[in-house]
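thread from #wetlab-drylab

HS: before we spend reagent money on co-crystallization trials with KG4, can we at least see a predicted complex? here's what I'd submit
DV: go for it
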Amino acid sequence: MAGPAEAVRYKEGPGWRESVWRNMESRTTRSGVKILGIESSCDETAAAVVEDGRRVLSSVVASQIDIHRKYGGVVPELASREHLRQIVPVVREAMAGASLKFEELDAIGVTQGPGLVGSLLVGITYGKTLAAALGKPLVAVNHLEGHVRAVFLEAFQKGQEPRLPAVCLIVSGGHTVLYEVRATDDSSGGALLYRKLGGTRDDAAGEAYDKVAKLLGLGYPGGPILDRLAAAAGNVAAPVKFGPTKTRGNALDFSFSGLKTAVLYHLREHPEYSDGIRKREEALRDGHRAFAELLPLCDAMTLGLVREFQNAVVRDLVERTMRGAEECGVETILVSGGVAANSQLRATFEMRARAKGLHVFFPDRALATDNAAMIAAAAFAGFCEGNFADASLNAKASMPLA
Ligand code: KG4
Ligand code: ZN
């Protein structure tokens, strides 16, 4: 195994090379590596410090939900502007939370993509500037790898070690994708190998939650409120049933736009829903968006519809992931991304995995949704490999993991 200095593979960068080299040579051991992670791919400005890719020293997330809510989704121009406003205070807070000075960092990790280019560029430009000013290495991180690392971070905090190989479902507002994840032969830095098993052909699952919530006058983002309303539905009669989604070709691909359209047609065919929708829209306009305020405005038919929608999403996500696990012959399932916070999804995965003798791991809510601790953790693997970025680093709207 090469020592840290030998492990460095440079990508030329003006002014960076020497200082990075000095930095690496002065280190004799890989423990105590502190990385500042920066995340700005969508509507969360986040910074975090993680030690050795395992211990979260601080994690700060500034959410822009209040800004985008009235548009029912993320507005890219507003997102970049807000990242610009937030990035400096958010990073400062993360450094203060970790009780560290910038000079004590070993590297900066920043999300390169996938995501909104204007938003990504704010984090990338800040990260590049900081790395150059400090003479520290910069590591470019794939946001999707960050979501995979979030599961490991959570497990490490609980003293658990997910065994590889595994299948990993990343399910959020922007992504629904299933990977096989393996350790590399030299996994001292925890580098992982990915093979894509399937992905959504249209909408992401979180996007379907957000769109259905909008149709029902339940606000944005839709996932958390639909999750709670589905649980509150109990055994009310089902006003409609949604069958399993069929995808031609790859059986591990997902599709959610048909389900969203089925909800839309069902609502159009049943004007009985409109009164409730109008009342909830009014409540939202008056700022009453809490679960306790919206629940009384949902009749049994609406609750039944929400429950059936969620049953269909959860069934689809779980079935395909379980099938992927079986095909790959793995014992471990990792589930990450904003929708991984869904209580029914978690309970169903736990039940199905237990029945098959598999282990399933989720991050808690803070690590499941976008955050920078997962970016810092992913950057650690790149750091150990000496896989550094230079001043030419650019944002990538699309950036497949495999
Ligand atoms: O990972 P994330 O914070 O951002 C993206 O990368 O998209 O995920 C946000 C998505 C939103 O679509 C939101 O509605 C969904 O995750 N979400 C949920 C739940 N909490 C958040 N979906 C279902 N159930 C939840 N409890
Ligand atoms: Zn994400």
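DV: Residues 1-29 have pLDDT under 50 and may be disordered.
HS: ok that's useful, forwarding to the group
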